[in-house]
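Notes from the pairing session

We agreed to fold both candidates in a single pass and log them together. This is the raw record for the first candidate, unedited. Please don't reformat it; downstream parsing expects exactly this layout.

Candidate A
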Amino acid sequence: MQLNFFKYQGTGNDFILIDNRDFIIDSKDISLIEKICDRRFGVGGDGLMLLENEENFDFRMRYFNSNGKEASMCGNGGRCIVAFAYHLGIITDSTSFIAVDGEHKAKILNNKKELLISLQMQNISKLEIGEDYFYLNTGSPHFVKFIPNHNNFDTYSEGRKIRNNDRFKKEGTNVNFVSFQDDSIMVSTFERGVEDETYSCGTGVVAAAISASFKTKNQSFKIITKGGNLKVNFEKIDSQNIKEIWLTGPAKYVFTGKFNL
């Protein structure tokens, strides 16, 4: 049996997308999903997403890390599955869909150069502010640390240390390193589940932008990642409550193919 798949990427964060409205793939088959995500023996991707039907919504987003396990919310993945639904003809210029962390809204900003997706993230109601770090959940948990600059900085080694320390070893956390660069912030990410540095992380840049607002008072940030540029804007009510969080950036179709099951 052959499985039709589609490959998308959002600022270098790459995903395998499958139209699973007819349940052609068993979401409990961890080994199959891990195999499809394998970069040597499968299609290869930071994660896999299933687009499924959901009553009262345009679709349901099911996201799986490359280890085959269903994961928490992925911001770049959310933008890519919205682009996927747009290309399938399920939606037009806006959408409301359901993910593991609840309802999300998105807008399709189609220009001549590329397809931009603006994705609304969940409100934040609790932040942990330490002496040299911030810890918050933006759909996925993120430990944010500011560094002087990213020149020769080893995101993999430093991120792996934090992700596997006594506090986070069991459940894991994503780790973001942030530096200021002119009127933008640069963000690098060690991502749990992938267990490696990724080119970009949507929930991570949201966490980084919110953390940076405590240092600059800004509520809108241009963000530079290894995979490209993103924008985050939000309304900061107080130090523990953030709402109207929008993540905007490109979501690009790469190719389609068939995978032998």
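Candidate B (folded immediately after A)
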Amino acid sequence: MAIIIGLSGGIASGKTTVANLFNQHFNIDIVDADIVAREVVALGSEGLKQIVAHFGEEILLEDRTLNRSKLREVIFSEPNEKQWLNDLLHPMIRDKINSDLSKVTSPYALLVAPLLVENQMQGMADRVLIVDVPTEVQIERTMSRDNVSREQVIAILKSQASREQRLAVANDVIENHTKNHELLPQITDLHQKYVALSTIDRSE
């Protein structure tokens, strides 16, 4: 099996940009935890069936897909319901991630997980790569990108792991506080390192 690099970072750190550069330039397979989280509650999924059985039909939109905003309202107002949902979905998400990672064909794979630290998913990876930016850069980027207030961004940052907590679990760090063209040399160096590590891993 390929070695797994857990890729994470705070809001507006550039995780998606970094993952896409690994894929575009080096054809590295990506498993995105956010996409998997959507797949396990997709139309016809076991996850969605159990959510409907628990919350009732009113948790669905007209097209029978999950009403995410309604679900968010429910779990924010009822901590017990949030726990129930986490207990249901987290094992499903982990199983699907492991299944997707087992099909990887590149020398190593990126497990992109925005909440890698918060959900203690670093154990699913052989190494952790953190995309790091100063907090002020995160605030400015998010305000500009999402057209939200500074206060809203600060509230989001407080709900996430801190910069220090992420860096504490990092094996590797990409600095992304400047222009994107400065990312590729860092990514190229890491790619070469990861290919070398995967070669050692396979020979053992």
